[in-house]
Amino acid sequence: MKIIYNPKLKEKARWLRNNMTLSEVLLWNRLKGGQMCNLDFHRQKPILNYIVDFFCAQLNLIIEVDGFSHNYKIEEDIIRDRKLQQLGLTTLRFQDIEVKTDIENVLTIIYNWVEEHTPRPSL
Fold this sequence. Notes:
Blueprint lengths: L9 H9 L3 H10 L9 E7 L2 E7 L4 E6 L7 H12 L4 E6 H6 L1 H15 L6
């Protein structure tokens, strides 16, 4: 599937990659380079008119780390997730504090989702 995005977001995505939050850096250090089930994750990926924190095209999986600012954007996040879901994408959301204080549990949740949704070759 080809991902459609607003090309005007490329510069902002680049800026966000260079200015990630601590929790994003912590999670990225555990996702990059195929560390999660040999999957290819991208960070700060433009999709539609949004920039998602992490994206795995192989599984159509978005991972979002919500910081303090998302406390006031609940309705926006719901609308965003619905639009992304219409493209066949799934969003896993984690709180910033969760990543900082219990990253192993966050990784377990991601791993379990990946295992459940990874196509298996038929015998």
